[in-house]
Amino acid sequence: MKKTAQRFFIVILCCLFSFCIATAQGIENKTLLSEAPDKELETILSESNVDIYNVLGLSRQELLTSVRAFIKYVEDYGFCPRYAIEETDLFAQQVYTAIKNYYSKTGFPTKNDPNAYFLTDSELFSTPENVNNFRCYAYALNRTVNTYVGQFSGTALTQTQINSMTISQIADRVVQDLNSSTLKYDCAYTLSTIPSVASMKTGQTLICVRKGSGFFGADYHFMRRVGSNWLHKPGQSSILRYKYTPSNSLDWTNEGVVNGVPTAPNAIYSGNIIYIVFSKHHYGLAYTGYSYHSGNKHYYEYSGTCTSCGQYYSSYYVVKACSGPPCPSTDPVLRIDPTCAE
Asked: Using an 8 Å Cβ cutoff, are 261 and 317 in contact?
């Protein structure tokens, strides 16, 4: 009886061992999703409700080619690249869900060696706690909630619009965003050449934008000058410090650091760079002598042409906190430059 039990136990162990070997081989031999035939790939995407028709302004074959390259990148690095264009970002997340569903039983294929890529044009600067919540445009505007070009001046630009727009047109939409009632940067303008640090006035911020191409078509990327550093945030990467001064002759990439691991680029930005200067207030306007008090604030009227953005104002009010009446005399500095206002 004991021998029979022992034999039965050995048979069970052999079966379990054989099952484990077969399962392991099945996992190892599972076709990579990035290598699946077009029809099979379409079916897998469809099962996860990913629409591959009339999306992002691409034809079916263009989209399949783009999706395949995107999937390969995810298989290599194990994370979903995020995008500065809302429509594209949402589509990428849908494809990423399909990838996770495909590998739900076997697990993702082996990721790249963390030491396989080294940053070339940038270096790690900082990693905010909410690093996954915002991307390059938000960082350029010093925001920590994700932001899309155009969302403050109408609607966020779509992938199709970005594909056909020039970098100057994109920069103009950024200026409109800055001038919006939400962001309230009264003074904003574009330049084709980089202004020197010495030429910048108190309260001004300098950013730059460039157009390029990624998996799903045209893309854009922003950098912001902080002191003498040019900082940027590619996708969900940590904040990086660009090693060089932005120049039309030197391409940018979206290499990054995600979860502490350097990641190879999947987009290149090689077009002309547009610089954008902005501040909360105008410069060089003349005080008209008219002012009034309301609530806990005093309003001073200015007029003239801004020496920075060049806009003319027949009536522009600068606001200062005031506990009056009686109200204090107009600050002499305010008469020269309204930047000291709230």
From this structure: no
8 Å CB contact between 324 and 298: yes
Q: Which residues of the chain have pLDDT under 50?
A: 1-29, 332-336, 339-342
Report the sign of the C-alpha dihedral through residues 192, 195, 200, 204, in that order: positive
Instruction: Return d(Cα 342, Cα 321) in angstroms, integer.
Output: 7
pLDDT attached to residue 93: 94
Domain residue spans of the chain:
1-29, 122-276, 286-340
* SS3 track for the chain: CHHHHHHHHHHHHHHHHHHHHHHHHHHHHCCCHHHCCHHHHHHHHHHCCCCCCCECCECHHHHHHHHHHHHHHHHHHCCCCCCCCHHHHHHHHHHHHHHHHHCCCCCCCCCCCCCCCCCCCEEEEECCCCHHHCCHHHHHCCCCCCCCCCCCCCCCCCHHHHHHCCHHHHHHHHHHHHHCCCCCCCEEEEECCCCCCCCCCCCCEEEEEEEEEECCEEEEEEEEEECCEEEECCCCCCEEEECCCCCCCCCEECCEEECCEEECCCCEEEEEEEEEEEECCCCCCEEEEEEEEECCEEEEEEEEECCCCCCEEEEEEEEEECCCCCCCCCCHHHHHCHHHCC
Burial of residue 261, with CB atoms counted within 10 A of its CB: 0-12 exposed, 13-18 middle, 19 or more buried? middle
Calculate the alpha carbon distances from 179 to 287, 297, 314 in Å: 22, 22, 18
Q: What pTM was computed for the model?
A: 0.82
pLDDT at position 108 is 78
Give the integer Cα–Cα distance in Å for 112 and 74: 10
Q: Which of 215, 214, 174 is nearest to 191 (CA)?
A: 174
Q: What mean pLDDT, rounded, does the chain reach?
A: 85
Q: What residue type is assigned to position 259 of the chain?
A: N
- 219 burial type by CB count under 10 A (0-12 exposed, 13-18 middle, 19+ buried): buried
